[in-house]
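Appendix B. Extra example for self-study. Work through it before the problem class; the solution is given directly after the inputs so you can check yourself.
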Amino acid sequence: MDSKIKIGWFSFSCCEDNTIVMTEVMNDHWQEWKKLFDFRHARVLKANNVMDEFDIAFIEGALAGPEHVEKAKQIRSLAKKLVAVGSCAVVGLPAGQRNAFTEEQKASIDYLVTRFGALPEVKKVSDVVKVDVEIPGCPMDPKVFLDKVNALVTELRPTITED
Amino acid sequence: MHRIDIRLNQICKVEGGASMDVVVDDGKVKDVKFAIVEYKRFFTEAMKGKNIAAIPAHLSRICGTCSNAHVMAAIEACEDAIGIEPTEQTRILRRLTMHGLVSRDHALHLYLFVMPDLYGKDAFLDFDEDDSEQHQLLHDGFDIKSAGNELSMLVAGRSVHATFPVIGGFLQFPSPEKVREVVGALQAARPAVLRLIEIFRKAPWHLDRQTKFMALVPDDSFGYIGGKIISSIGESYERKDFRSHLEHVALPYSQASAYTYKGESYLVGALARINLAKDKLHPKTRESAAEALKLFPSTDIYHNNLAQAIEILHSFDESIDLLTQNGFKPEPIIKAPMRGAVGMGVIEAPRGTLYHKVVMDDKGIVTDGEVIVPTGQNQVNIERDVGVLVEELVKDPANTKEKINFEIEKLIRAYDPCMSCGAHFLKVNWK
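Solution. Structure tokens for the complete assembly:
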């Protein structure tokens, strides 16, 4: 029998709407996911999270601080496939809306950006690491998510037949 | 006795990122810092210059899980500014939108975040399908979540960032066939909600610290839209007062604004709502949850979990009535001329009272805005409770640091905090 597919689910700067959509998709798929997936790191689902290796790592959210950039690089180094989920991860918006502020607006928020050590400009995930699959949307479309995940499962475990 | 520094860098099974620092010296808690560590996304600054029609969808993106509450609050604020009175059907559809949100959001919290602690598991998906009780819980949890999700999709288009509700009405309306399907799903999952209430009625966790609480209470029923803001000391406030009864507190270590009420911490959310308005719950809910309701009013924060379970039942019961007793017909969107005005929206989001304020010019362009979220209001109360908890735990030398950390996380989870909401601000008046 094939080993379970190791999953990482990571959230950076965003509203975590894709996490909610994922947990709603789970309503209809939790039984197969229980058999198929080993959630190694999914802070929203569990407390004992492990950063060792991932067959598929999902990243939602834009990268807003230097530690986000470092963490994204670490995730990339541990993941066979890296999937950017949702608008903030794929195009950097709306989490990165401050990038398009006027000079006056930027000046008004500058002390907050500086106080917490945020990046001067918010980045989308592909600005920092190679992304294998993108699932756009705000939030992602559940059907597109399932199609992309099923395609990855088939690629990673060709002997598993999807129901 | 020695000094103990407790630091939880990343609290799990909550919405968004938060950390907790506690300093204990000579058996006394000297400092507690609950920090929301999400980077600011500046939604209120980004409101400026947008047409008012774009504001509900824009502010919805503050938070995924609470998104439909933000949509409702923003619509109410915009309609208040423009001077639109929604139709009776629109009011009903908005109530149903909130019931869908409350059902799926509370179920997510209670099953996926809290239930593993109750059963000594790391994750809800770790529950054993071969164990009859755990098997039942797995099915119950996803059945309730699914029914709430179906209700949201029926009425609001999506359970996240709803697409049907807009300023002035709804863009689409439930069909009789779909209504029958969703009513069937709610009726089928109702016994699961009763089992959920029993689990949290019997849950062995308690932490009771006297505190104030506050909620928006509708005039005619238990709910989440309309009415007055009522506090546990018997005072009431109108929507137009916005946040004049709250004091802003600067917490320089947190990305979110905190608030106090009459100089002290207070709590908002399901526990506050059930405490203040349990007599207004749906009659079937009052009958089926009679034993559990005897525990309220309560300041035991773990009763927030029980209050959430009762609210799911109320949402199911009222939704079944609203869906079966009303036929839904297409209605045009109400329009009104733009005017320079200020509008307020106040909604009970799943985690507590949510305030939106919109300032617009006579062309319908937003010039300013403000949003106050429940987790910001609970922040100081969380710190006070953690202080009491830790001081009690350190009295027993058998309590390891791991045990104390676990208990702190469990307590914070009982509040069901939402850090995505907490960290959207621009104006934090730190000196």
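Self-check: Chain B has a mean pLDDT of 91. If your reasoning did not lead you there, revisit section 3.
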